[in-house]
Design a protein that fits this description.
Helices cover 34% and strands 30% of the residues. It is α/β, with parallel strands linked by helices. It is elongated.
């Protein structure tokens, strides 16, 4: 949180908010724009689906805006521009232009982690060198189902790393669901040498979920995209 606060206080460059689920991305996106309002300056949010109101922010329906209106809308440029919706060639160019002018931009990208988010932006047409110049941070957020600690039961099978996997059997504490309160996780990284580099004091999502799987708090199937082949082999009875 301290590292993210420092990035936002700087007030320039692109902050990418990543997550596989839209609600994971939008919640973090709104929280960042609320912080931007408190920092001062004009804030414009272009949203693919207008939801909760952000006081002090001009929120516009991205899907109803005509491309020809972007120039008038962003003249003069806002201190903060947010884009929570489909990232086409025009909106990506808009985001990069605002960032290169020295202002701040927040965009959301459907991706499981920070590195995947940058790869998606590359596939959308943003050169890697331009990402390294304009992107100051990537915040990847995940909300994972936590195995109920009261009815947790160790399976006989083990993961390739040697740790057991646990499943919730269902009890009164979890209303027979087998899962407890969801577990929110986040990583904060920056583009670095064709990959990503965690900020000081933070850890990659993949490293954190491996520890949670080993501790029995999360099932490997729920984080297969972060564990890579480990969960696939385990599920197949490795």
């Amino acid at each position: 949180l301290a590292a993210l606060e420092a990035v936002l206080a700087d007030g320039r460059g692109i902050v990418v908010v990543a997550g596989p689920q839209r609600i994971e991305r939008t919640q973090a996106y709104h929280a960042i724009l609320e912080r931007a309002v408190r920092l001062g300056g004009g804030v414009i949010s272009l949203e693919g689906r207008l939801g909760a109101s952000i006081p002090g922010t001009t929120q516009l329906d991205l899907l109803r805006l005509k491309p020809s209106s972007f120039g008038t809308l962003l003249h003069p440029l806002p201190d903060w521009l947010g884009i929570d919706g489909p990232l086409g060639a025009l909106t990506l160019r808009l985001a990069v232009d605002v960032a290169l002018h020295g202002n701040a931009v927040v965009i959301t990208v459907p991706a499981p982690d920070g590195e995947s988010a940058l790869l998606r932006l590359e596939l959308a047409g943003v050169p890697r060198r331009l990402l390294e110049i304009s992107v100051c941070a990537v915040l990847a957020r995940r909300v994972l189902p936590r195995v109920c600690p009261h009815c947790r039961f160790a399976r006989e099978r083990r993961t390739p790393a040697g740790s057991q996997s646990y499943v919730g059997l269902g009890c009164a504490a979890c209303a027979d669901q087998g899962t407890a309160e969801p577990l929110p996780l986040a990583e904060l990284v920056r583009p670095y040498d064709q990959g990503t580099q965690p900020f000081t004091g933070t850890a990659p999502l993949a490293e954190r979920v491996r520890l949670l799987v080993e501790a029995g708090d999360v099932q490997p199937e729920a984080v297969s995209d972060l564990l890579g082949g480990v969960a696939a082999k385990f599920s197949a009875g490795y």
